[in-house]
User: What shape does this take?
Amino acid sequence: MPKLTIDDLKKIKEQYKATLTLREGGYRAKVTVHMGTCGIAAGARAVMNALVEDLAASGVKDVIVTTSGCAGFCSKEPMATVELLGSAPVKYCYLNEEKMKKIFREHIQGGKIVEEYALVMGSETSY
Amino acid sequence: MEDLSLHILDIAENSINAGATKIVIRIKEDSAADRLSLSVEDNGSGMNAETLMMVDNPFFTSKKGKRWGLGIPLLKQAACETGGDFNIRSEPGKGTVLQASFKRSHIDRKPLGDIGQTMLALISGHPEIHYVLFYEKDHYYYGFDTETLKEALEGVPVNLPSVLALVKESINSSVNKKDTPEKTSRKTIKNPQVKEDASR
Assistant: This one.
């Protein structure tokens, strides 16, 4: 695909309007990818891209992806925090694209925490 | 950092933390002058003269609870290693302009990398910010502006995954269009010994 064309955007607009009624307005899940210098150097951008690719492919629209800075665990980067509505946030560490895809399938879509990649569960303090 | 697009993402994150609402990224490749230059300009909180003096010191940070700040020193090092230049201008309340330039053919010059992924990460993380990207290579120009995109989307969020994926693809097909003549020349190498080396 050479350029972003009006047709491409039109298609997205139509799809979006078609699914708009299915949305409840709010977001069901929020994923924060830690995008400090340490996270970026360790591969956080690829992790984030993998997640967005999965979201686009699956058509899930009630998940918000955002970024934050260094959380103080530079050696455990890339990290991401997954927060499902109504439950405590879970921090995952030492991530890569495959691990993120698994977390998307099992935790974000399935609601089951991927314990083997999880570091901690609970609220985050921002520095 | 493996490539320049990661440095750009890192520097733009600084702009976001400085409360910027508009970030302009410029990349210029000039083969005749053998130069690659990039700049990140924001309208964030800016820095005073004392902070500006300290900013390329890896043991300086403005964040509480941290003892180092490596983003800017790493980019400065990457630029200086190739015989390039590095400078930051800033004014409190107005914003910051960071510029780095590289000797394009230098063996230590990091590749440009995946600009599309960088823009995806920026837009996804902070969709409310107005991002502008200019890419110039010799006589090829490319521009991307999230405000124009938002207008065309007519209310569809710019951070919708399908929009982001399209934006990434579109930027990459435009930015890497005329890039890496080295890559094409590598394919035409006839010496079998070198070929074997390249396939490793």
Q: What stands out?
A: Residues 26-121 of chain A form a domain with the Glutaredoxin fold (CATH 3.40.30.10).
